[in-house]
Specification:
2 copies of one chain form a homodimer. Chain A has 354 residues and is α/β, with parallel strands linked by helices. The first copy, chain A, has 2 domains: 238 residues, Type I PLP-dependent aspartate aminotransferase-like (Major domain) (Aspartate Aminotransferase, domain 2), CATH 3.40.640; 100 residues, Alpha-Beta Complex (Aspartate Aminotransferase, domain 1), CATH 3.90.1150.10. In chain A, 35% of the residues lie in helices and 17% in strands. Chain A contains 9 helices and 14 strands. In chain A, the strands form 4 sheets. A 7-stranded mixed beta sheet of chain A has the order 2-10-9-8-5-3-4, sandwiched between helices. In chain A, strand 6 and strand 7 form a beta hairpin. In chain A, helix 1 packs antiparallel against helix 6, helix 2 crosses helix 6 and helix 3 crosses helix 4. The complex binds pyridoxal-5'-phosphate (PLP) (2 copies) and magnesium ion (MG) (4 copies). The site of one magnesium ion has 6 residues of chain A, from helix 7 and strand 11. Chains A, B: Its cofactor is pyridoxal 5'-phosphate.
């Protein structure tokens, strides 16, 4: 049976990417060797790394603008730490929009003063704070563009006199933005880009080199840039699959083209959530994420029926995170509009049964 | 043409492992979903992680002895840093046997005093220092069991009153040792265990919790242990392939069985190096690595002929590291005796041509 994979991450990837990746694990580009058993210093792999780095900048519209792209290990969680190591001399500001931005903030506390610029904790992070000002005495301002767990998304970003750092783990490459307003963007691959195991970091080079502490090599963005994202052995497979996925996106028409599809998917699910009396959206309407739609089923007695219907329809990964409960439909780039239609049909069928 | 893959890392893996891994990328255990698109918190993946962790301890004979196994991101290079973060309060001792141990030592310097207990730098690291004493006032002693670049290997380890930490990146699971003499073992997967992208860390739990500094979450072994090696999204594919490779090794008869094969491969190449007047070994005989045989071709005029012959025989990855020059035959667990025979034939054919 065809599966409809709404998993929050690791998540669905384009079938043609999976097929090519699978092939490369036994025979990479007809070399007679597997992708994962060749030297990372060999020309075929260096080409993969360079292509992935170039595609990332190209798709964000950041080529020739002083940015460098890196594919590192350690997940976005390691970037919580690396950002502070590289940029925090005295004080940084964090926008607290949920679990992940709070974790980022906590890790940074080991390296300097942290000011919570605004927070939506008062309403279990179901909205994005607005109207706050970013102080101009900060080393940097940090925000999380999409809150995977709560299903909220920043639709615009504050004016910012200091470097702006953004965790885009769960919505990078999903919508058009002026990406040059950010000075550092990071994103774990395992949503819109590839498998778990690599993290994209896009850095405006001129923000580096301004802290007085010594930075351990593996945390040092300058060292990673200087070695072409190969300071040590890179996560070869994860970088390769990311490259394939970025290629797929480029061939599809890039971020502009996928944004249209993502908007369609989001409209479809949110109008069902709103119109269907059995379901209720969690996030404040203005801040609803196009990537993760969070909602609850109002009538507990229908839970079993609903979940059986989901299973029968081949729908996977719809459980909400424990911090929110209910359901979460993650609709990353590779999820088709058809899969959302299948989900919406199940939801409306439940209504007719109830 | 069949390839004989002598790459130093990433390196050869068992063909049956590659086949299973390739299959899992399109359809994991007949689930209809790819291994890389399911949640790492789902039971099928948690089972993979737990099996990998258990197999690692079992193959090292460390089950039930107070050790925990972790599969982390960041490569062995991140462990250079993590070891010091977790264990270095005042002073640590390092045995300097080449590039990697020197890098480990340099990173640790950011966290405390470092004493170079012994070094073989005087002879470009072509031997392992012996007869040194490990001071008893150290927080820990660090050594590198196999020096991938220079082709030397510790055949025995010093008596040590303080915790002993060992970088086994390039010879873990290749030979029998009393692994309980070590308190912390780490190894990048990309030699004897799997693809680049994960690092095995095996820790005797009772050495932790003794430093006064605050440790960032992603560097904190206790946090990783407490969350079952899933503090954040693990590198799913690399862990899965490592699990498959450890399973393969167990089915083969474990470390004891592979050690016999590894010894045969090493004897074969080293006797050719010694007997063939065209070649000269780099490492001191007593310290020769069973994993990486380093050697030079004495007559530069034969270089082109030799390399053409290697190519015609399907031999890949024989170039030496720039710090040593010449050639390096890496003979990790998955390399067959047959491949070594093919190489030795080419070497002796060169002699007959010369
Ligand atoms: C927005 C966001 N930031 C950070 C993370 C943590 O990523 P990782 O598990 O790669 O460390 C996640 C994971 O889901 C996330 O959604
Ligand atoms: C003995 C040893 N230690 C450490 C490393 C560094 O490993 P990584 O590239 O995974 O950081 C290597 C890499 O070849 C190695 O051989
Ligand atoms: Mg700015
Ligand atoms: Mg409703
Ligand atoms: Mg001891
Ligand atoms: Mg000789």
């Amino acid at each position: 049976m065809k599966k409809h994979n709404f998993s929050a991450g690791p998540c669905i990837l384009p079938p043609e990417v999976l097929l090519k990746a699978s092939q490369a694990v036994v025979d990479f580009d007809n070399s007679g060797l597997s992708l994962i058993e060749i030297s990372h210093r060999s020309k075929p792999f260096v080409d993969v790394m360079e292509k992935a780095r170039t595609l990332a900048l190209e798709l964000l519209g950041l080529e020739g603008k002083g940015y460098k792209a890196l594919f590192l290990q350690g997940g976005a969680s390691t970037q919580f730490l690396a950002v502070a190591y590289n940029l925090l001399e005295n004080k940084a500001g964090y926008l607290n929009t949920g679990t992940w931005s709070n974790k980022a903030l906590q890790e940074a506390k080991l390296f300097g003063d942290i000011q919570e610029v605004a927070s939506s904790k008062d309403a279990n992070f179901n909205y994005i704070p607005k109207g706050f000002e970013v102080p101009s005495d900060l080393d940097y301002f940090h925000c999380t563009s999409n809150n995977t767990i709560f299903g909220t998304q920043l639709k615009s970003f504050p004016k910012c006199d200091v470097p702006m750092v953004c965790d885009m783990s769960s919505d990078i490459f999903s919508r058009q933005l002026d990406f040059s307003q950010f000075d550092l963007i990071y994103a774990g691959a395992q949503k819109n880009m590839g498998p778990a195991g690599t993290t994209l970091v896009v850095i405006k080079e001129d923000i580096l080199g301004k802290v007085s502490r010594q930075i351990p090599s593996m945390m040092d963005y300058k060292k990673h840039i200087g070695s072409g994202s190969m300071f040590n052995t890179p996560p070869v497979f994860a970088v390769y699959v990311s490259m394939l996925t970025l290629e797929w996106l480029k061939n599809l028409g890039g971020v502009k083209a996928i944004e249209e599809i993502n908007n369609k998917k989001a409209s479809l699910i949110y109008s069902e959530i709103d119109l269907n009396p059995l379901f209720k959206g969690f996030a404040s309407k203005a801040d609803r994420s196009t990537m993760n739609a969070t909602f609850t089923l109002e009538n507990d007695n229908l839970k079993e029926t609903f979940e059986t219907m989901l299973k029968e329809a081949g729908i996977n990964g719809l459980n909400g995170h424990r911090s929110v409960g209910g359901y979460r439909a993650s609709m990353y780039n590779a999820l088709t509009l058809d899969s959302v239609k299948v989900l919406v049909e199940v939801m409306s069928e439940l209504e007719s049964k109830a």
